[in-house]
Design goal:
Blueprint (H helix, E strand, L loop, with lengths): L20 E5 L2 E6 L7 E6 L8 H11 L4 E5 L17 H7 L6 H15 L3 E7 L1 H12 L3 E7 L16 E6 L7 H14 L4 E6 L19 H18 L1
Parallel strand pairs: 3-4, 3-5, 5-6, 6-7, 7-8
Antiparallel strand pairs: 1-2, 2-4
Length: about 240
């Protein structure tokens, strides 16, 4: 029996009343939250394996919107079932085959078009968590329309082409993430130094496990709270710098 990769218990989430609303964009559903004033800046949030309806990810969408961005979390699983905490970890590899984080280009284009044409967005950034972090890493190599990216504990591991980032990208990791070893983080850093032509940043947060940065305040342990808040502030600062 392999250890469950998601160390936070997703079964007992506190209730969260969302600030945004759901929209239909072509064949995709999405959750959108807008700031109270007009802006031509937007951020796409890419959910983790628990999907676009997961309360923690909606909390993050609302948080980013509160900093003055039209923020949107599309259903990158296109209506299929997200991973559930009751699913068997032995089936995860098979599930991933049908939910490939590097096959998100079409959905990203649909959402970019919507943000530009329907929302008047001129600068668009992206932030993704875990599965979504992998999707962000992929998109920052492929889609020049994304002005900046933040990948939280998700990287593409098996490609030599993964270092030629098109625009500024920030990689956030937990020191105790058992899905991404420190060796992999050091390799990423070494290769980015070698190949990357744009701004990038890598930061490791002490003592933090996979999934740490999207916890809602009432679900945080007191000892983790400063690191969670720091990671979120760092994410917002990166977006503010470039988007």
């Amino acid at each position: 029996q392999m250890a469950d990769p998601f160390l936070y218990n997703t079964g007992e989430r506190s209730h969260y009343g969302c600030l945004g609303h759901e929209v239909q964009i072509e064949y995709l559903k999405a959750y959108v939250c807008r700031p109270s004033f007009f802006t031509d800046k937007a951020v796409i949030v890419v959910h983790d394996v628990f999907g676009w309806r997961f309360p923690d990810i909606r909390y993050i969408v609302d948080l980013i919107a509160g900093h003055g961005y039209i923020t949107i979390c599309p259903d990158f699983f296109k209506g299929t079932e997200p991973w559930k905490s009751t699913d068997h970890w032995a089936d995860f590899a098979d599930w991933m085959k049908d939910h490939d984080p590097t096959k998100v280009d079409k959905e990203a284009d649909v959402v970019l078009k919507y943000l530009k044409e329907q929302c008047g967005a001129k600068k668009i950034g992206i932030a993704g968590f875990s599965w979504g972090g992998m999707a962000v890493h992929h998109l920052m190599l492929k889609n020049p329309q994304l002005t900046a990216g933040v990948s939280l504990y998700g990287i593409i591991r098996d490609s030599e082409e993964r270092y030629n980032l098109l625009n500024p990208t920030f990689f956030i990791f937990g020191e105790k993430d058992h899905t991404i070893s420190l060796d992999q983080i050091f390799l990423l850093e070494e290769k980015l130094k070698q190949y990357c032509k744009v701004s990038y940043k890598i930061k490791v947060y002490p003592g933090q496990v996979h999934g740490f940065a999207q916890l809602k305040p009432e679900d945080m342990k007191p000892e983790d709270k400063p690191y969670i808040e720091e990671a979120r502030k760092d994410m917002i600062d990166w977006i503010k710098m470039f988007v």
